[in-house]
């Protein structure tokens, strides 16, 4: 049985005081290493809130969150920052590339933030970009890149510091069907490996066949989990 990378027990998240919004309502979840898990559900169902808690961007209101052996709800804000820097890679829907940096410089940002020397950071970033088919576009600025190329830079930036946990928030939402499939194929080929867990938030039914595990959410709760051709929970 694969080692568990991510585990939630009865996780809730409430926003606001006067008229509180219950974004998560007792989430229980386990994701093993070596899997690409898709977190699926309609807008407003709590997917992104759960992803932010798992990535150490938000604290849960109640419950236990264990990621890569760290109990996140017990960590201080500074400890969470260090956890994210070392262990988490982020791929966002809108890429969030810095316009004044080249592709290779953008991809190197997580290493530079960690204090890695610039020459070494750029070398590692270039290696990842080469794997992603961007060898001839490393010196281009974001405005000189197509949407698909910008997405590849974003994936390289998420992977350059070799995180053990990769989170992707709606990476295909702004893409057409073919570009979305290419993005998911890249994530599956480059990111999924035995010592890493990958969670992708999506409501894009076109990419469901890329997931090893399908986790369906509604109204702040996980309503069922499936693996391809095999129902595993309800």
What attributes does this structure have?
4-stranded antiparallel sheet, Rossmann fold, alpha/beta, 7-stranded mixed sheet, 6 helices, single chain, 234 residues, 31% helix
Structural account:
- With 234 residues, the protein is of the alpha/beta class.
- The protein has a domain at 4-94 and 163-233: P-loop containing nucleotide triphosphate hydrolases (Rossmann fold, 3-Layer(aba) Sandwich).
- 31% of the residues lie in helices and 30% in strands.
- Strands 6-7-8-3-9-10-11 form a 7-stranded mixed β-sheet.
- The protein is globular, with a radius of gyration of 18 Å.
- The model has no long low-confidence stretch (mean pLDDT 91).
Give a summary of the structure in a few sentences:
By secondary structure, the protein is of the alpha/beta class. The protein has six helices and eleven strands.
**Would you tell me the overall average pLDDT?**
91
Our count of helices gives 6
Here the CATH topology of the domain at 4-94 and 163-233 equals Rossmann fold
Low-confidence segments, ≥5 residues, pLDDT <50?
A: none
Share of residues in helices: 25-40%
CATH homologous superfamily annotation of the domain at 4-94 and 163-233: P-loop containing nucleotide triphosphate hydrolases
Structural class: alpha/beta
Order of helices and strands: EEEHEEHEHHHEHEEEE
Strand order of the largest sheet: 6-7-8-3-9-10-11
Largest sheet: 7 strands, mixed
State the distance separating the first and last CA atoms: 20 Å
- What percentage of the residues does DSSP assign to strands (E)? 25-35%
Radius of gyration: 18 Å
CATH architecture annotation of the domain at 4-94 and 163-233: 3-Layer(aba) Sandwich
Overall geometric form = globular
- CATH class group of the domain at 4-94 and 163-233: Alpha Beta
Instruction: Write down how many β-strands occur, each being a DSSP E stretch of 2 or more residues.
Output: 11
């Amino acid at each position: 049985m694969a080692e568990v990378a991510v585990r939630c027990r009865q996780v809730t998240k409430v926003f606001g005081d006067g008229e509180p919004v219950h974004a998560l309502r007792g989430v229980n979840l386990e994701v093993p290493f070596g899997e690409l898990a898709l977190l699926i559900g309609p807008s407003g169902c709590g997917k992104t809130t759960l992803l932010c808690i798992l990535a150490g961007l938000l604290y849960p209101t109640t419950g236990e969150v264990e990621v890569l052996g760290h109990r996140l709800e017990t960590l201080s804000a500074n400890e969470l920052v260090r956890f994210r820097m070392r262990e988490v890679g982020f791929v966002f829907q809108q890429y969030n590339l810095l316009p004044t940096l080249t592709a290779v410089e953008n991809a190197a940002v997580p290493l530079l933030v960690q204090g890695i020397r610039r020459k070494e950071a750029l070398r590692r970033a270039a290696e990842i970009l080469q794997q992603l088919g961007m060898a001839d576009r490393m010196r281009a600025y974001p405005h000189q890149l197509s949407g698909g190329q910008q997405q590849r830079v974003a994936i390289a930036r998420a992977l350059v510091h070799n995180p053990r946990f990769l989170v992707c928030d709606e990476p295909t939402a702004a893409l057409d069907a073919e570009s979305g499939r290419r993005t998911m194929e890249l994530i599956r080929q480059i990111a999924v490996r035995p010592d890493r867990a990958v969670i992708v938030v999506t409501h894009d039914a076109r990419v469901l066949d890329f997931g090893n595990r399908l986790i369906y959410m509604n109204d702040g709760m996980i309503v069922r989990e499936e693996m391809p051709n095999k129902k595993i929970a309800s």
